[in-house]
Amino acid sequence: MEVLELGKVFINVFQNTGLVNFTLLNVVMIGLCFLLIFLGIVKGFEPLLLIPIGFGGILANIPVAGIVEPGGFLWYIYNVGIKTGVFPLLIFMGIGAMTDFGPLIANPRLALLGAAAQFGIFTTLIGAITIPGMGFSLKQAASIGIIGGADGPTAIFVTSKLAPELLGAIAVAAYSYMALVPIIQPPIMRFLTSRKERKIKMTQLRHVSKTEKILFSLVVLILCAILLPAATPLIGALMFGNLINECGRTDRLAETAKNSLINTVTIFLGLAVGSKLQASEFLTIQTIGILLLGLVAFSIGTIAGLFMAKLMNKFSKRKINPLIGAAGVSAVPMAARVVNKVGLEEDPHNFLIMHAMGPNVSGVIGSAVAAGVLLAYFA
Predict the structure, then answer these.
(1) Which class for 374: exposed (0-12), middle (13-18), buried (19 or more C-beta within 10 A)?
(2) Alpha helix (H) ranges present in 202-284?
(3) Which of 256, 224, 295 is closest to 98 using CA atoms?
(4) Using one digit for the tens of pLDDT, what is the confidence trace for 19-35?
(5) Average pLDDT in the 186-201 region?
(6) What is the DSSP string of 209-223?
(7) Is the pTM of this model over 0.70?
(8) DSSP secondary structure string, 156-173?
(9) C-beta neighbour count of 243 within 10 angstroms
């Protein structure tokens, strides 16, 4: 009798091992998560996010562990930080503390380039609901379109409100394309601009005072509150972070926001996103559609920024190097660095980094405004 009972114990233990409960889809998904970690460690593609996302995805695909079930480790992180929208807002606060809006204030017309780059969001939204066979709802299409802003926190914030069931695919797509900016953008930039255009030198930016930077944060917040309240959480967090950095009286808060706070939240954000990479939810035809549509959205945003710069040159005496239009997407500061690199390839003395930061930080604001528009209409 005791031998029989002991046998039952061994059988129960064996039935609850991963060896028995792993499915082929779990194995495939864990392999993809290892790929994310590989890209982060070996290739250096957004390692601060791809590594936590990949590791969280591995944990989420371990059967029987209960990590993503109610009461589980990742379940708490997701519900506290992502479902409530807190993590993306804290990330935006840190981004604000690290961002210098001086180049945009010195040349305000560059805001048009950041606005043009958001064109990819709305064209992809339309495409997502018209592609046959995908069956995306308006809310899901809006969440997919936001990938075109190349802003991971914004994409997560919008998706958590409109289509949480797509969070894993959209977050991975958004951060993957942010990481692949140095690969995706340069061919588009070279194809759509001439060598003559890429060699255009822009005049040096004027000095922007601390007072102007402080007023900029407050004025943008007030305008947002008046014109588009739905965007206030994102814009408010961004401008608060910038204000505590620029005012000169809260250095300790600014240092916390752009170092320990954003780093801590990034760890939990990545793990929480990874928790949505369960094989049953991620390995679907819809996920493939999201990845492809995200690439289209990002590419259209880049193209729109380039064409807007060309259009502005038709009506302006002070020429703009069209390359900086590609920095209108919200991948700060990587897009601006890529613009500078492509410009230096044509002329090693033509430094575009500061000029590109204008549309780049404008793109951050633009993606937040676009998110506000989507939330106002679809939430």
Answers:
(1) buried
(2) 210-227, 232-246, 251-256, 262-274, 279-282
(3) 256
(4) 656 788 888 999 999 99
(5) 92
(6) -HHHHHHHHHHHHHH
(7) yes
(8) HHHHHHH-GGGHHHHHHH
(9) 21
> In sequence order, what E strands does 259-323 have?
none
CA proximity to 234, closest of 378, 84, 98, 365 = 365
CB atoms within 10 A of CB 280: 11
Other C-beta atoms within 10 Å of 138: how many?
Answer: 15
| Cα–Cα distance measured from residue 363 to residue 85, given in angstroms and rounded to the nearest whole number | 21
CB 230 within 8 A of CB 373: yes
- Quick: pLDDT tens for 110-160: 899 999 988 888 888 888 888 777 778 889 989 988 888 778 889 989 998
What's the length of the chain? 379
What b-and-e string marks burial along 177-210, b requiring 16 or more CB atoms within 10 Å of the CB? bbbbbeebbbebbeebbeeebbebebeebeebee
How many alpha carbons lie under 13 Å from residue 52 in its C-beta half-sphere? 18
Q: How confident is the model at residue 186 (pLDDT cuts 50, 70, 90)?
A: very high
Residue type, 284: T
Answer whether 106's CB lies under 8 Å from 205's CB.
Answer: yes
d(CA 267, CA 236): 23
How many Cα atoms within 13 Å fall on the side-chain side of residue 125?
18
Sign, CA torsion 123/129/131/134: positive
Report the C-alpha gap between 290 and 125 in whole angstroms: 11
Closest CA to 180 of 73, 101, 294: 294
How far, in Å, are 180, 205, 296, 350 from residue 354 at the CA level?
21, 8, 27, 11
Which amino acid, one-letter code, is at 172?
A: V
Token pair recorded at residue 14: 């064996």
